[in-house]
Specification:
two-stranded antiparallel ribbon, single chain
């Protein structure tokens, strides 16, 4: 070993010997492992639910689709069920996806008060799922309009595409607005905390 490598080795060994491990290190590692296992179980549960829903929808499509004069005909309500399932699947996939990448952004914005950042993420999750649920209920059809036929037609397919594109547009606009407003909220909460600290120090 060269002198530089020896000095670097000695410095690292000395630093390791001087470092005192946290008393709750094992507990934190154990909690982290358990949280990772819980996330994996939740993913497998969602995957199994998704496979089950796809199986039921596929069975419904196969049983209700018939061939007349060389054309495949499907009842209109089957496409409605498929559309609702697609919207629910988008909500269940897009929500955790946004949350996973939004945690670090929220941590940077609310670094002065992390608890507020965690609460903000939870509240935005609630708003997200409320918007998705309301949109699915508002746009669901229980009786085909006059422009539709009793079987799937071009007008119904166009309406389905508008529904899926509409929810993606709404979530995209709201998410972009959230990204723009979060830094202002983080600065505002930081200022309020500083003012509270100044008032407490004066008292």
């Amino acid at each position: 070993m060269t002198s530089l490598e020896t000095r670097l080795h000695d410095a690292l060994v000395a630093g390791a010997e001087a470092t005192v491990p946290a008393p709750d290190l094992f507990a934190r590692v154990q909690l982290s492992v358990e949280a990772d296992r819980a996330r994996r179980r939740l993913r497998w549960r969602y995957l199994s639910w998704g496979i089950g829903v796809l199986a039921v929808l596929s069975l419904a499509i196969v049983l209700t689709t018939r061939k007349i004069e060389g054309r495949l005909i499907m009842e209109w309500w089957v496409l409605e069920l498929v559309t609702a399932a697609v919207l629910v699947a988008i909500a269940l996939w897009l929500g955790p996806f946004i949350k996973r990448f939004g945690r670090s952004y929220a941590a940077d914005v609310f670094r002065a008060n992390p608890r507020t950042g965690k609460s903000y993420i939870v509240l935005t999750d609630i708003v997200y799922y409320l918007i998705f649920t309301a949109y699915i209920l508002f746009t669901s059809t229980v009786d085909p309009p006059v422009a539709w036929d009793e079987v799937v037609s071009g007008a119904q397919i166009q309406a389905v595409l508008i529904r899926i594109g509409g929810i993606l547009l709404i979530i995209g606009v709201l998410h972009g607005f959230n990204l723009l407003i979060m830094p202002a909220l983080g600065r505002l909460f930081s200022m309020n905390r500083r003012l509270d600290g100044l008032i407490d120090s004066e008292d």
